[in-house]
Design a protein that fits this description.
The protein is α/β, with parallel strands linked by helices. The protein has a domain of about 260 residues: Glucose Oxidase, domain 3 (2-Layer Sandwich). The protein contains 15 helices and 26 strands. Strands 1, 2, 11, 12, 13, 14, 25 and 26 form an 8-stranded mixed β-sheet that branches. Strands 7, 17, 18, 19, 20, 23 and 24 form a 7-stranded antiparallel β-sheet that branches. Helix 1 runs parallel beside helix 15, helix 5 packs across helix 15 and helix 13 packs across helix 14.
Length: about 550
């Protein structure tokens, strides 16, 4: 029975950083990192546009589907989650986004722990950041205010994108004409403004957490061990003479058979908002009635496990344009595709270097909101749905999401078998507030596109269509054309000691189970105002410090 000081479950965004930090403490701790997927040696992981070939691919994706959703008029959605070293950082949109200061101040209020305030979290973003504007050849041109907010020399590379589009530049100008200020930094505490996103890339290649935190540092450490193709069937727990439940290890299905591994200090669950909730429930830690329904002995009745699912739902407005090139026609011919490939091969620039969304904007749907409450991801292309062919006409897509949805869904096991995917019910647009923001956000899109800067290209609304004007029509149409932007959080949320639905405390320790933490996006009590990958790294950076401090206590 192999024994380690720490077992980290999941080598994704949080797990890679956790394994790095825990095995770096002067070799004092033996660390085992378990990953259900394989190595990140698939070439499409590293070419930025390769997300098209990684999402929906069993080599890199868990291939989840949501349940039929009334808010989406009965539709189901593909729900990608990374199943490979680097996890979702190997298949996501690469956008570097922290969220807004108010997100973290709200976490502090919800947990009763002021250490979650923005000013307390900021140093942990900076700790692993390696921002291009602080490189030696750029630092002299960078303001002191920017330097105070960003870091350099860490493992997490942040670069500017390596392409621009005329149609996106026009959209940015139109947004400014509509009252949205220009910005060159979405990560200063308020992300209001319009500008090109910065991305987690290095010299035109995707920069995932396997490169940043595992390779080569961890792979060369004698106190670090990693298993791939290792599926956790359940966590092991035992009740001591004092009656307290403790997590002692895990039962792992490997290519060589079933292994039992033990942890003398802690098991750290970093399997994500879907996987962490599923593993806890399979282990008898979760809502008692659900566990009994599937014949799983209840080790600890924790009703919040799998509840509180939140996600950003993007509403995809498509506009036909004239007199300007978009990817729809640039990639329409074999010659066009060859030119795109050659540009990337020679210079690491052009469409193959681009993130799924290049231009971003944050603004308000009404004056009732003090902070920006919607985010745009704007792309110089259009298609009916992800994975479908590009349209034959030139067009751009302005996808807009409600940053702080009030709708809540859940993740629940469907059987006692780890092989069976859990039921994912996102419950989108289930509240009047979310339906109103959906309708209003489509009106904001129309207002931007109507500005003078866009008129040379004669934009024509293709989806949803100008015939839809009322709140009711627009909310219903949002259900028809919206899709996830892949930001599930909250299913193991942290909270106060007197909150019966909180799964972990403010230091991410599972309530009622010693020796067990959850460290991933599932612990967020509320979703951050933007893309969730880098906030998850910040969570892991903080948790690693707490774990190491507890070891020395």
């Amino acid at each position: 029975m192999p024994s380690f000081d720490y077992i980290v479950i999941g080598a994704g965004t949080a797990g890679a950083l956790m394994a790095n930090r825990l095995s770096d403490a002067k070799g004092l701790s033996r660390v085992l990192l378990l990953e259900a997927g394989g190595h990140d040696d698939y070439h499409w992981i590293h070419i930025p546009v390769g997300y098209l070939y990684c999402i929906g691919n069993p080599r890199t994706d868990w291939l989840y589907q949501t349940q039929a959703d009334p808010g989406l008029n009965g539709r189901t959605l593909r729900y990608p989650r990374g199943k490979v070293l680097g996890g979702c950082s190997s298949i996501n949109g690469m956008i570097y986004m922290r969220g807004q200061s108010r997100d973290y101040d709200q976490w502090a209020a919800l947990t009763g722990d002021d250490s979650w305030r923005w000013d307390q979290c900021l140093p942990y973003f900076r700790q692993h950041e390696n921002h291009w504007r602080l490189d030696p050849d750029q630092a002299a041109q960078t303001s002191e205010a920017f330097k105070a907010l960003h870091g350099h020399g860490g493992e997490w590379r942040v670069e500017k994108q390596r392409l621009r589009w005329d149609v996106l530049d026009a959209f940015a100008q139109a947004a400014q004409q509509a009252g949205i200020p220009a910005t060159d930094d979405f990560n200063r505490g308020t992300n209001e403004g319009v500008g090109y996103f910065e991305v987690n890339q290095k010299s035109g290649f995707r920069w995932n957490t396997a490169k940043a935190f595992l390779r080569p540092t961890c792979f060369g450490r004698p106190n670090f061990e990693m298993w791939t193709g290792a599926h956790v069937r359940r966590l092991l727990t035992e009740r001591g003479a004092d009656g307290l439940l403790r997590c002692t290890g895990a039962e792992v299905v490997t290519p060589h058979g079933v292994e039992t591994v033990t942890a003398t200090r802690e098991v750290i669950l970093c399997a994500g908002s879907i996987g962490s909730a599923q593993i806890l429930q399979l282990s008898g830690i979760g809502p008692g009635a659900l566990l009994q329904q599937h014949g799983i002995p209840v080790q600890h009745d924790l009703p919040g496990v799998g509840e509180n699912l939140q996600d950003h739902l993007q509403i995809r407005s498509v506009y036909k344009v004239q007199g300007v090139k978009t990817l729809n026609t640039l990639a329409a011919t074999s010659w066009g595709k060859a030119k795109i490939g050659l540009e990337y091969l020679l210079r690491r620039t052009g469409p193959m270097s681009m993130a799924p969304s290049q231009l971003g904007a944050f603004t308000r749907t009404s004056d009732a909101f003090v902070w920006p409450n919607i985010e745009y991801h704007v792309q110089p292309l259009s298609l009916d749905a992800f994975g479908q062919p590009l349209h034959a006409f030139n067009a751009f897509t302005a996808s807009v999401c409600n940053l702080n949805p009030t709708s809540r869904g859940h993740v629940r096991i469907t059987s006692p078998r780890h092989e069976d995917a859990p039921a994912i019910f996102a419950n989108y647009l289930s509240t009047p507030e979310d339906r109103q923001v959906a309708a209003d956000s489509l009106r904001v899109t129309r207002r931007i596109v109507a500005q003078p800067a866009m008129q040379p290209y004669r934009p024509e609304e293709f989806k949803p269509g100008v015939q839809y004007q009322s709140d009711e029509d627009l909310a219903r149409l949002a259900g028809d054309i919206a899709t996830t932007i892949f930001h599930p959080v909250g299913t193991c949320r942290m909270g106060r000691a007197d909150d019966p639905t909180a799964v972990v405390d403010s230091r991410l320790r599972v309530r009622g189970v010693a020796g067990l933490r959850v460290v991933d996006a599932s612990v967020m009590p509320t979703i951050t105002s933007g893309n969730t990958n880098s906030p998850t790294l910040m969570l892991a950076e903080r948790a690693a410090q707490w774990v190491l401090a507890d070891r020395l206590a």
